[in-house]
Write a structure and sequence with these properties.
mainly beta; Porin; 8-stranded antiparallel barrel; 10 strands
Amino acid sequence: MKITRIFASVCFLLITYLANSQTSNEQYTSPYKKAIGFKLNPGAISYRSFYTRNKAVEGIGFISIDGFQLTILNEKYFPFANAENLTWYIGYGGHFNLWSEKYKLNNPAKSAGIAVGADGMLGLDYKLKNAPINISVDIQPAFNFVGASYFDLGWGGIGIRYTIK
């Protein structure tokens, strides 16, 4: 368990450093300003809004019979291999969960009640050229430190969103 915590801490420090690094790509401008849609795995609502040309905030909300999770991420975007409308991104943020006792029965390493933790994000983002659709695929490592302490790689997924200029 101690090795998992050290690994998680190093991952979050690296993600935070890269997301805030001074090497900026100020020439890059996102092909859309806002997007709303779904993120598959496990099945959440996703809203992304760019507040500068290459930085966005993303909110991800997941609701089930067992409870809910709300995640807020700050993300930085970079062009990928000079491909039009294709970027890679990295980010960091946090989550707040509220789970029932039934959730704990299905997930023994986790706990019922309130859970709070830190999240990282690494992914690819593509805006379709002639349609208001954005597709992304990412990995979202998370470390929970209020409630049960655990490291989780299970919140990344595929996002499909409607874009708004």
